[in-house]
Design a protein that fits this description.
Layout lengths: L1 H15 L23 H9 L4 H16 L8 E7 L7 H10 L8 E5 L4 E6 L4 E6 L3 H12 L1 H10 L2 H4 E6 L1
Helix pairs in contact: 2-4, 3-4, 3-6, 5-6
The structure holds zinc ion.
Zinc ion binds next to α3.
């Protein structure tokens, strides 16, 4: 709740602060950093409506990109996500929006249909990273979802070390 208030206050302040250079502020007078204090699981469930492994993976990918690129996210990053355009894989897209702060509405998230889930992130400083699911993960996920349900599968991928779920590569 507190983070919601902080974010809302930030947006109001940003909107009433008068014109800023469009190039600096993503064209709408706003730039981070945004202080987020709500726990990730709560944010995922409130935004996405349930907890599943692909929303968790998208969140972790976005968070990893911010960390590796030393980016506050939100206004500083552009994300491109390729994914099958059906659930559960497409839930990854919502996770990226939460983890990286890139969103469809801010126009710094593009989504392309593809066979595999993969995301790339580029910071305004020009550094970029590509994040793929580990090749063996989709098969494991399908088994966990079938045997244990989506929530248990989500907790698994939340608790696993990053390198066991995602392949992270810096791009030139
Ligand atoms: Zn989902």
């Amino acid at each position: 709740m507190r983070a919601t208030i902080i974010v809302a206050a930030f947006f109001i302040a940003g909107c009433s602060a008068g014109p800023k250079p469009a190039a600096e502020a993503g064209g709408h007078g706003l730039q981070g950093p945004v202080e987020v204090k709500t726990p990730p699981l709560v944010r995922m469930v409130e935004f996405h409506g349930h907890l599943g492994p692909y929303v968790v993976l998208g969140y972790r990918a976005g968070e990893a990109a911010r960390e590796i690129l030393k980016s506050p996210g939100y206004f500083d990053l552009d994300a491109d996500v390729t994914s099958p355009l059906h659930t559960p894989q497409s839930c990854f897209i919502d996770g990226v929006q939460l983890g990286a702060g890139c969103s469809v509405g801010k126009r710094n998230l593009t989504v392309t249909e593809g066979e595999n889930v993969v995301a790339s992130f580029r910071s305004k400083g020009g550094k970029a990273v590509r994040i793929d699911l580990r090749p063996d993960l989709p098969g494991k996920l399908a088994g966990w979802i079938e045997k244990e349900g989506v929530e248990a599968a989500a907790h698994r991928v939340l608790d696993m070390p990053l390198e066991e779920v995602l392949d992270v590569r810096l791009l030139p």
